[in-house]
Amino acid sequence: MMKRIIPILLQLQILAGLGFAGSADGQIEKILSQYSKIHSSLAEDSTEGVDAAAKSIQELASLLKSADPASEKLGEDIARAAQSIQGENLEQTRLEFFELSKPLLVYLNTYYSGKETYYRFYCDMAKKGWVQSEKEIRNPYYGSSMLTCGELIK
Q: Which among 30, 60, 77, 145 has the fewest CB atoms less than 10 Å away?
């Protein structure tokens, strides 16, 4: 009897550890919706709407809770990065956007199990990555000057 219970307990522990991904994916998708607004503005060489989207991301990320300290720290990193985005200067906003992209990329690569498809891109010229929901490259770091610079990494 005990030999049967131990494998079941191990499976339950594994599933409990994965609980963050499933429960937080809805929140991450809301964050990514706001992140996409920032991405679109930067790809169009604009900062319009960036402040409001960054504020929303900060609020949404502060609601991410988990029993897993590593994944909870990602939520804190996302909130902190969003807080730093001011949207006043295009070049500065692009730098701040990369700081926001880093924890989101980590989350998507490590925990994300949602149904939505998000593509990860990397621009070798800028040495920066980002996330977007469309497969067609729209580089937020160079905008119209090099809109299609980058490569799909997933």
A: 145
SS3 144: helix
Q: What distance in Å separates the CA atoms of residue 106 and residue 103, rounded to the nearest whole number?
A: 5
Tens digit of pLDDT for each residue in 53-63? 999 999 999 88
> What is the number of alpha carbons within 13 Å of residue 7 lying toward its C-beta?
3
Residue-wise DSSP of 43-78: HTT--TTHHHHHHHHHHHHHT---S-HHHHHHHHHH
**pLDDT single digits (tens) 103-136:** 999 999 988 887 788 999 999 999 999 999 999 9
Q: Dig out the tokens for 37 from the structure.
A: 């607004």
Q: 50 with 87: CB under 8 angstroms?
A: yes
- Please report, for the domain that includes residue 101, its CATH number: 1.20.120
- Report the predicted TM-score, pTM, of the whole model to 2 decimal places: 0.82
